[in-house]
Design a protein that fits this description.
Elements (H helix, E strand, L loop, with lengths): L6 H11 L6 H12 L5 E6 L4 E3 L5 E2 L7 E7 L4 E8 L6 H73 L5 H28 L2 H6 L1 H11 L4 E6 L6 H20 L6 E8 L2 E8 L16 H10 L3 E5 L6 E8 L7
Parallel strand pairs: 6-7
Antiparallel strand pairs: 1-2, 1-5, 2-3, 4-5, 7-8, 8-10, 9-10
Length: 333
Amino acid sequence: MSEVASWLDTISRVFHWIPDLATPPEVESTLREILEDPDLRLYWWDWEQERYVDVWGGRAVPAAGDGLALTWLEYESRKIGAVVHDARLLDAPGFTESFVPLIRIAMERDRLHRDLVTKLDQLKASRLRIVEAGDEERQRLERNLHDGAQQRLTAALIPMRSLAGKLGETPDLRRLADGAIEELEGAIDDLRELARGLHPPLLAREGLGAALAAAAIRCSLPVEVDVDLPRRLPAALEAAAYYVAAEAITNAIKHAHASGVWLSAREADGVLRVDVRDDGIGGACIDCDVNSTGLGGLKDRVEALEGVLEVESPEGKGTRLTATFPVRETSTA
């Protein structure tokens, strides 16, 4: 290091030359330049693995060679890291009094930040796995209902209709048969609606646009649909967008006392935006009821895909539910 440079100048350069969130190799390289010490090496203490690691994350044992010194960076209660450097730096009071404490604090902040980022990444991955597992289970249940109970009821309905046709001259028995047929048909319709609610087959076959259009047709309220989706999207993304729209429409019917719903879904510039608006009484809130599984569950599903769910619902002025998702360039299979 130049003898004319003060340690105050050196510390100033550390602050100005090393950007926030610089990678460990960048920190090490910059410190070598600032201290004019090409042999300087940094090590971090990995508290989970209880070992030192180099700037690349590999296991390492800090040690000094000829002309070098090893300075431990730690507090009485915990280890932070170590730095191997030119031994002549120990002769400069500013190195041990000012520079070492600065690097110790900076390295601890870096470790804490990277630990936080890692935990957040793990949390996101875990939430996504839960969403995907839930969707797979929905699909499995939908198939089981369709191929199992629904098919068995349909099989029972066919001979019942044949039997009813042969009871025309026995009014009492015909009424019983017709009643049984009506119950079977109702049960089949209920199962079909339940299976569709779990995971609509149309969503998997033809995509989000077709599934939204079909949902609007089945709705007991008028639903105006505006869809601009030029391509198929990842399955988890289409499912999340569909359930956002379905939940918003259900809320408009059950709670908002709305007379109409306006639904749009558009994908452009790497963003999918689903917007559902009604003219109901308003007052909807995501976090109002901690035990609610409706909007709260939607928020978890949307955020698991790095999306944002927003609700505007002033009293007496209707509700607007908007979900915005980043679209990753991945396979849609």
